[in-house]
Amino acid sequence: MQEKPVLLNQGEDSEMELFGYKTVRWRHTLCIIGYIFSLGFLQALFYWKPELDVWCQCIPCSLSQADVILRRSTDEHKQYYKKEVKEICPCIPGSESTLQIITGVNSIISKSLMKQGKIRYIEVQKIRYVWNTVEGQFQKTGILEEELSCTDIHSKFGSGLTQEEQELRQQVCGLNKIEVEIKPIWVLLFTDIFNPFYVFQAYTLTVWALSGYFYNGGIILSITFLSICATLYSLRKESGKLQKMAQSYNSTMVNVLQKNGEVKEVESQSLVPGDVILLTGSKLFLPCDAILISGVCTNNEGMLTGESIPVTKNALPHTEGTMPWKIQCGEDYKRHILFCGTEVVQTKAQGQDLVKAVVLQTGFNTAKGDLIRAILYNKPVNIKLHREAIQFIYVLVGIALCGVIYTSIVYTINGESVRETVLRSLHLLTQAVNAALPASLTINLLYAQKRLKKLGIFCISPQRINIAGKLNLVCFDKTGTLTEDSLDLCGVVPSDGHSFQKMHCFPSGETLPWGPLLGAMASCHSLITLNGELQGDPLDMKMFEGTSWELENHSEHGTEESISCTMVKPGPRAGKVPVEGIAILHQFPFSSALQRMSVITQVTGESNLMVFMKGAPEMVIRFCKPETVPLNVSKKLEFYTGQGFRVIGLGYRLLEKEKLQTIQHVEREEVETDLIFLGLLILENSLKPETTGVLQELTNAKIRSVMSTGDNLQTAVNIGVNCGMIPKSSKIIIIEAKEPQKDSPAEITWKTMIGTLENGHKESGSHFDISDEGDHYTFSTETFHFATDGKSFQILLQHFYNLVPKILQNGTVFARMTPRQKSILIEEFQKLDYCVGMCGDGANDCGALKMASVGISVSQLEASVASPFTSNIPNISCVPLLIKEGRNSLVTSFYMFKFLTMITLVEMTSLVILFWKQKMVSESHYLLQDFALTIPISFIGSLNGPAPKLAPYRPSGRIMSPSLLLSVFLHSLFTIILQTTAFVLLQQQPWYNETDISSACLPLNQSTENITMRVPDKTVNYITTMEWIVTSMNIVILEFVLCKGRPFRQYLYTNYMLTLVITIHVAVYIFLLFANIESIYLFFEAVCTPYYWRVYIFFMLLIHFVISYTVEEGILENRKLWILIKRLCNYESKSQYKKLQSSLEMDTEWPPHNRTDYASKSVSVTDSKTIVFTDAPSLPAINSGKHGTPCRHNVI
């Protein structure tokens, strides 16, 4: 009996179901016999349908007893894969108790070892999973145990592994290498030959050979061979390129600390999880993922995130407790991880300790391994489109089967032999699917990818190009994406505890006097010097440059611990100060989740330490003593942020050195408390020149733009208005939500912002105010925009989830968003059936870039794990370029699909008519139709570039759309009418004779004695000649009629190759129609007909062209007509966001304003991935309160 499947990698993108099976010998033997008698076709079937292989050879069993695992993807494709269970016999020193001492009781090695001393495992997508005998599931190896706490990592692995531990872990985990296998030619050839497409080609060749089409079959065989060779060459080339990328830094020498204190230089391939590597110097490329346990590292993570700014990594803290270390460290646990493939540009030891890191993950488990696996095992996309394409092909096969039945009946009635009947029936079946279809669609994507590469946009997932054509909402990060990376330092507003002082303007040239405020600006940063140049976050650089101080790396500071630290000293242009410099002893790096950073410093010559903090003003204020914060701080913040300035809060405190045992092991919670508020740092982050124009282009194309940033809400709103994301005539409603308190439920407040920016200039002094008026406003869904911050967004998800879709419908600015909240925002938009794009430039956007339907990372690299698209264009102009190419590629795909489908139906119609009279298409006719018509279009039909302007609507993304189905139906109907009319008229001509094909072109009373008499047969006759000309010209007409230009592609004439080919096709076939050359008739196995009949054919084709073109352009491509039909039929869109928009337009009391609502029920969070909500609250009717008083309602 089949057991329930077990989930592997639950909750991850690579989630799959596992089924256990046990091989039965007699079944296996029968299958081998089947391979032999089927000449390998059964084996080919099993290769492409592994589930059939397993079901035929095995019986279901539990995973613990299985020797074969059938895994199934949990996505819509439900793809099956077969995996054999393997065993290893590790060399274990001593007894089982000795093993537990070596590896630990909770180690996966201890849990996976069976009584026989064996470990069972499977390999899935380059990752090894061992069978956990204790928990009864397969578990990933090559990673450090996830349940370890911070203390466990320091105590168990801080001093390294013993030789026995290293050897045992290596046997179980395998070598630390990322290796891409270049498969032998014969393996690739076997895989290609047994591809369903080539199997169908083999069937076609067999039928054609039996029918006597040897030349045609030979040419097809040659083209198939060349196609296979081209595919093999492409695969080998790509594999070689990927192998080179994977093997870089695959084998380097590293220093490993062993348990006995010995430092040993080993090859990086021998590293195992738990090893301690020593990091010395710079320019070191990490061969694994590792947790930094001592010292500080500065890494270049551009390969992973596209982030050009070096990232500072701090040592894992000695946090007490038993919770897993990732939970203890919170969302920013990655600040302790050194990722494989990234470059260590600088290391700094603290005290006498070395810079050490514990190996966390090896091989394909690492971040670099994820990038390689993402390319190797590209996740299927466009699932709905793929499913519709398969359904459409099934319909074509059904039509072909009807033709087979028709052929069998006709040939049987007319007394044809069984062999002839079967051959003609099978011949018709070869027309079911156009052999050029798969290649044409692939070529289209290759051309699109090539065009994008020329624009500086690189793609590791070509299937997503078509998805880019369906985008209707794009989320943008702000800093570095919409705005410049660099900042302009405007000034600092000092605080004296009770009020703010006059702003000190740095552009004036005056230096800031000595004090804690200057100390904070000089030391509270993560800057480093590389090759004599200052590098780091642009904000830090501008702040530090404003002090005119200088930075020195790795100075030995005179403390008891002789800490190697960074020193900052007054520069030549700095004002006179009574100190020689400040030593930065310890740093708590900036965290997007925490929204702050802090440093522990010591002024030269003083005994006490000073803690400086900078970050989001709201966050810094939270850690300051209330009495040191001016009462008007909120208004001050609104004043500057409302004008678009970026505002940073500063604070400090004194710290007695004696309270700290060791500075490098101090927890930030110990020092980030009871601070004294110093003031506000004011910076200006100007828009990139291209931003406004690009956003306007997207708006004109009816593509929504949304901002998701970690910056202040007021600043983000101001930037949104200045860049045109929010029209200046629109109302802005700020949403603020609060957590439930002991005596009150969660609440949500709606505040309307009033005021405008005068031409967007900061110096005008104009800013937004929050209105507390209770007057009733009437908004339409297009005249207001919601703005909120990450904290309120999280509360909305937990306590007001029913309002989230309504808010997202007009939500434009989402500020103070953590990386996790950005991902959730994308996911919530997708639930409304938006096709969402994400454009960002840094590590904080990685999750959102992966979550989006199309992620675009603005980076100087060609590939990163951050997103499927990477743009070298340093601004958001890459977004409309990608959308244009996506629309072009999508429309071209449908054009190729429809055109090649129509060729199939046209040729099938021709065969049906010919078979009525037991006639056949000659081999020369097939040669001209297939290789002069079909193949050129397959290669050059995709050369049209994208339209230069984005249309205000998207192309259809469905094969089963009414317009496409109606187009195929009508053109098929026109074809049937054309060919049937020509067939009937031909037989009514006075010269038509099935036994005499030579006298039709002779003048009256002319003798036939002096001409060569040709004997009619199944291919040389009037009907076949007529059908050949009509069918070929019909295909040429469809080439032109179906080739779409604007609004998504460039016009046909811009594709010079296609224009030339169509022109040649028209000229050649008109020549063949009217030429009266005997040698041509003989070569093409045609017969001569009277000129007036050829003129009939020409005018029939001309009428057919006019009707086809008029119907295609005037009806099928008439957008206004389709909109009218939808309205008359009361068609309602199935998209959730359109349904929601319609309902909100009918709701005269939406949106709320200047009021507070309360939640009646909370929600429960069941796990870290899925949020389950209880009864959702609904918005009540809006009742206006008294003037100046916000209305308050309970949300029931």
TrEMBL record:
Residues 12-132 form the P5B-type ATPase N-terminal domain. It catalyses: ATP + H2O = ADP + phosphate + H(+). The keyword Calcium does not apply. It is found in: Membrane. The chain crosses the membrane at residues 26-48, 185-208, 214-235, 392-413, 425-447, 894-914, 926-943, 964-986, 1022-1043, 1055-1075, 1091-1111. Keywords: ATP-binding, Magnesium, Membrane, Metal-binding, Nucleotide-binding, Translocase, Transmembrane, Transmembrane helix. It is an enzyme of class 7 (translocase). Residues 250-375 form the P-type ATPase A domain. Residues 152-200 form the Cation-transporting P-type ATPase N-terminal domain. One of its GO terms (molecular function) is ATPase-coupled monoatomic cation transmembrane transporter activity. Its EC number is 7.2.2.-. One of its GO terms (biological process) is intracellular calcium ion homeostasis. It is a multi-pass membrane protein. GO terms for cellular component: late endosome membrane. The keyword Repeat does not apply. NCBIfam families: ATPase_P-type, P-ATPase-V. Belongs to the cation transport ATPase (P-type) (TC 3.A.3) family. Type V subfamily. This is Cation-transporting ATPase. It comes from Xenopus laevis (African clawed frog). The gene is atp13a5l.1.L.
